[in-house]
Amino acid sequence: MFKNTKAFSGFSVDDVPAARAFYGEVLGLDVSEENGMLTLHIAGDRDTLVYPKGDHEPATFTILNFPVDDIEAAVDELAARGVAFEHYDGYTDEKGIMRKMGPLIAWFKDPAGNTLSVLQED
């Protein structure tokens, strides 16, 4: 039934203008707005809907993962743009990069408190 549909993902925020600035200006994504909602235009035709929700609660899981070739460079560039990385005792280093298991990965939050990550592709 859904084999040929172009499904997409979405998540809520509590402040659409703040989300637009963060995703468009800080992260550098192409962003459009229609009917009070944002669309993040992500490479590979993977648009993601960002919608306002008055009683928004941040997701308790990672909602978007951004693969990068060089996590050190990505973390440094995002930190220079004001992004604060999460630190998990015993798991992440001083930059917020987890190096102990799985791919190198660093988590950060959007203005609505949703968790995002950058992870290094091998």
TrEMBL record:
<feature type="domain" description="VOC">
    <location>
        <begin position="5"/>
        <end position="121"/>
    </location>
</feature>
<protein>
    <submittedName>
        <fullName>Catechol 2,3-dioxygenase-like lactoylglutathione lyase family enzyme</fullName>
    </submittedName>
</protein>
<dbReference type="InterPro" id="IPR037523">
    <property type="entry name" value="VOC_core"/>
</dbReference>
<dbReference type="Pfam" id="PF00903">
    <property type="entry name" value="Glyoxalase"/>
</dbReference>
<dbReference type="InterPro" id="IPR004360">
    <property type="entry name" value="Glyas_Fos-R_dOase_dom"/>
</dbReference>
<dbReference type="InterPro" id="IPR029068">
    <property type="entry name" value="Glyas_Bleomycin-R_OHBP_Dase"/>
</dbReference>
